[in-house]
């Protein structure tokens, strides 16, 4: 089992022929991801990287049965690209684009409520189910198949966590980079819930950062759900001063419970195994999985 993407996903690339789309699409194809084509308005009927180019997402759905998309469209046009994909019936929309205006994302969030599409991102590294599909910009060689799910606001910490888990002798079911913008599609809680319901996932790594309430909401849901599977948590931004944006646009402490320390306390109170350093993620996973085995 996996969540969101697998070997059967029929994936298109929006912004296919641009420099970013070309580079990352070629990497995904090399990984073995089932890319069935791409979309660049005005270039329909051409071929790129050995795959067909379509003028619209609807064309890609009609002609290639696409059900998943990854978006490498510039910030000014990315919101329209997301809504176009949802309108065409795409079920999983993964948006890599950074810098989409918050006002645009407010419209996207409202629009998606009337569809059955799931958005991951924007400003995220994507989703990977090792050995099946890499739909994103993550370095595929780090990820090995296994029994640990990862949910992360941070791209680089997703890779770091996967590397540590693998070095401990375990592997990854699916890693989901949810993105660090103020308004995103799939929340921490929603991503954790998908992995909790995945029979192959035996433990979860949850990586958060300062700002917002997503980690607290996820932690309270995990406890209310009965702590079915062990969760290792890390919160980035422990030295960040209040009121200053750090890295991601959403990483700003603007209210109570949004600092790293406050979030770490909430996670611990709800039964999550909190580590103070990302260097300890792998060890903590090995420890909780040994406990499950015993």
TrEMBL record:
InterPro entries: Cit_synth/succinyl-CoA_lig_AS (IPR017440), Citrt_syn/SCS-alpha_CS (IPR033847), CoA-bd (IPR003781), CoA_lig_alpha (IPR005810), NAD(P)-bd_dom_sf (IPR036291), SUCC_ACL_C (IPR005811), Succinyl-CoA_synth-like (IPR016102). GO terms for biological process: tricarboxylic acid cycle. Keywords: Ligase, Nucleotide-binding, Tricarboxylic acid cycle. Pathway: Carbohydrate metabolism; tricarboxylic acid cycle; succinate from succinyl-CoA (ligase route): step 1/1. Residues 4-100 form the CoA-binding domain. One of its GO terms (cellular component) is succinate-CoA ligase complex (ADP-forming). Its EC number is 6.2.1.5. Coiled coil: none annotated. It catalyses: succinate + ATP + CoA = succinyl-CoA + ADP + phosphate; GTP + succinate + CoA = succinyl-CoA + GDP + phosphate. Substrate binds at residue 159. Belongs to the succinate/malate CoA ligase alpha subunit family. Heterotetramer of two alpha and two beta subunits. PANTHER family: SUCCINATE--COA LIGASE [ADP_GDP-FORMING] SUBUNIT ALPHA, MITOCHONDRIAL, SUCCINYL-COA LIGASE SUBUNIT ALPHA. This is Succinate--CoA ligase [ADP-forming] subunit alpha. It comes from Wenyingzhuangia fucanilytica.
């Amino acid at each position: 089992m996996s969540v969101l993407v697998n070997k059967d996903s029929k994936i298109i690339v929006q912004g296919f022929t641009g420099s970013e789309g070309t580079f990352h699409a070629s990497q995904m194809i090399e990984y073995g991801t089932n890319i069935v084509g791409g979309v660049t308005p005005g270039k329909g009927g051409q071929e790129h990287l050995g795959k067909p180019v379509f003028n619209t997402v609807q064309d890609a759905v009609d002609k290639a049965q696409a059900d998943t998309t990854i978006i490498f469209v510039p910030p000014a046009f990315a919101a329209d690209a997301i809504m176009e994909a949802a309108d065409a019936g795409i079920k999983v929309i993964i948006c890599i684009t950074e810098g989409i205006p918050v006002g645009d994302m407010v419209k996207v969030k409202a629009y998606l409520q009337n569809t059955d599409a799931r958005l991951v991102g924007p400003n995220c590294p994507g989703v990977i189910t090792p050995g099946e599909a890499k739909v994103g910009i993550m370095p595929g060689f780090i990820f090995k198949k296994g029994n640990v799910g990862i949910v992360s606001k941070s791209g680089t910490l997703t890779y770091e966590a996967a590397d540590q888990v693998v070095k401990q002798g375990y592997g990854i079911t699916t890693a989901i980079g949810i993105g660090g913008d103020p308004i995103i599609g799939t929340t921490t809680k929603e991503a954790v819930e998908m992995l909790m319901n995945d029979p192959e996932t035996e433990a979860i790594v949850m990586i958060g950062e300062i700002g917002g309430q997503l980690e607290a909401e996820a932690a309270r849901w995990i406890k209310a759900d009965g702590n079915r599977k062990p969760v290792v948590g890390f919160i980035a931004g422990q030295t960040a001063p209040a009121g200053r944006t750090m890295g991601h646009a959403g990483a700003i402490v603007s209210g109570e419970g949004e600092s790293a320390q406050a979030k770490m306390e909430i996670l611990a109170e709800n039964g999550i195994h909190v580590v103070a350093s990302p260097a300890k993620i792998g060890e903590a996973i090995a420890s909780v999985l040994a406990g499950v085995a015993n």
